[in-house]
Structures are given as C-alpha cells and as structure tokens.
Amino acid sequence: MNNSGLREIIRDIKNIDFLGIVATIVVAWGLVVVIQFVLYWLAARLPTRFRFHILPLAPIIRLLILSLALFHIFPLIINSTPENIIAILGAGGLAIGFAFKDYVSSLIAGIVAIYERPYRLGDWVAIDGYYGEVKSVGMRALQLVTPDDTTVTIPHAKIWSDSVANANDGQREHMCVADFYVHPQHDAQQVRQKLWEVGMTSPYTRLSRPVVVIVQEKPWGTHYRLKAYPIDGRDEFQYISDLTVRGKAALARLDVQPALAPPAITM
What is the spatial distance between Cα 126 and Cα 138, in angstroms, rounded to a whole number? Predict the structure, then answer.
C-alpha cells in the first residue's frame, strides 16, 4: 500500500482525537486491573471448587475489554468509508489466516487422526517427549496424563512432524520391561530362569501372554530385560516396581552381585 493510500485510510493528524484515544486506553487498562483484582480477591475467599470457575474469567474479560477499546479507537484514527473498511478487513483477514494456519493444520490433522487412529482414548502413547495415557481427543488437540499426574495438551499437528509411539494400540494391556544389571561372574542360565519365574508369579502378570527374559552382555556386566504383560496396562509402573523389587530379592538369594558402572574417564 503506497503513501497516498495510507493517507486516504488514516485521518489527517489534525483530525485525530488523541485525547479520546488516551482516555480510552486509560479506562480500558483501569477496568482490566480492577476486574482482575476483584476476581482474584473472590477466588481467594470463596470455596476451592469455585476458584477454577472464577480465575478463567480473567483472560476472557480482559480480551473483551481490549476488543471494545480497539473498536472505539478504530474510527478515531481511520476514515470509516466502505472502501477503507473493506481494505482493512481484507488485510486483517490475511493476517488472521497466517496467525491461525497452525490451528487449521491441527484441525486437519485431527480429522486424519480419526481416520488413521494413531491413538485412541485409553492408549499409552509417547509424543514430543511426553508419555502417558490418552484421556481425551478433541478436534484440535489430545490430552494425555503422564505418570506424574500431569495433563499435557498436544496439538494433532504433531503427527505431521513427530513419530507417535503407541504402547498398547487399543488393547487393554501392553508390554512392560524391568531391567537388571548384574556382575558378569554368575550362572546366566540360572539367573534367566529365576527372573522368568519372577515374571510368571507376579500378581499383575497376564499369564495368557508370554514372559520373556532377554540377556545382553555388556563390557561392564550383563543386562537382563524381563519383558511381560500386566493384566491392565494402567498398572504399568506398579507392575514394573513389583518385578524390580521381587527380581532384586531373587538375585540376592542367588548371591548374584549387581554390576558396577565403570569410573568416569577424565582428561
């Protein structure tokens, strides 16, 4: 847009009511401060159950006040002719389109996710470094709850660029792994058998699925991976803890020593 076009849209500086603009900004800012203070004051004194309904009102009211202030300031600066309004709305629509392109991308990805089903309610997934159970799948984003009871909102657009690791893929249970690191001087066959028995005798184990012990020799010792399925995948961490505690006790009875990490090499 050239300078002549701007002059046609923006009022002459002599005709701009700067006092009205400043007054509008001051009033809007004052209302925002007062309303936020009142809302926080109420939230601190009302029962806890009301706090989470009152506090979310603060940004909504702030946005409403700022929008009304802009609508009031707009005609004080702009020549409100039909041509100018159309030009400004067109430029604003283009800017909004760029601003919301990620939002639209997430909506499209949500439709693709419904068809391809990389995750469902109840699935245990790892996305963008977060691992947890999917609690809700909306049009724009999904919410998962981590083992630390933290709710994480992840936009569906992540499926365009990130891998989605799904532990159970719609099934009730999923494989869990307990790791054991022991000194290389031991009877590997005996240790492997004992860890298999630990997996088979756990009250969490789904006996219809296989229990497998994988053995890997490392320079610093032997790595055992006890792999089994719990009856309910939601018991994953209780299950791994049970396998670990009972496995360590079984290895102690066999007088198997734990592996020691090699000392760090300093230059």
Answer: 18
Q: Tally the C-alpha atoms within 13 A of residue 78's C-alpha that lie toward its C-beta.
A: 18
Cβ contact 195:250 at 8 Å:
yes
Please state, in angstroms and rounded to a whole number, the distance separating the CA atoms of residues 110 and 115.
9
Q: Give pLDDT tens digits for 237-262.
A: 999 999 999 999 999 999 999 887 66
Q: What is the largest CA-CA distance in the chain?
A: 94
pTM: 0.65
Q: What CA–CA distance (Å, rounded) separates 37 from 28? A: 14
Secondary structure (DSSP) of the chain: --HHHHHHHBPPGGG--HHHHHHHHHHHHHHHHHHHHHHHHHHHHS-HHHHHHHTTHHHHHHHHHHHHHHHHHHHHHB---HHHHHHHHHHHHHHHHHHTHHHHHHHHHHHHHHHH-S--TT-EEEETTEEEEEEEE-SSEEEEE-TTS-EEEEETTHHHHS--EESSTT-S---EEEEEEE-SSS-HHHHHHHHHHHHHH-TTB-TTS--EEEEEEETTEEEEEEEE-BSSGGGHHHHHHHHHHHHHHHHHHTTPPBP-PPPPPP-
Torsion over CA: 150, 156, 157, 162 (sign): positive
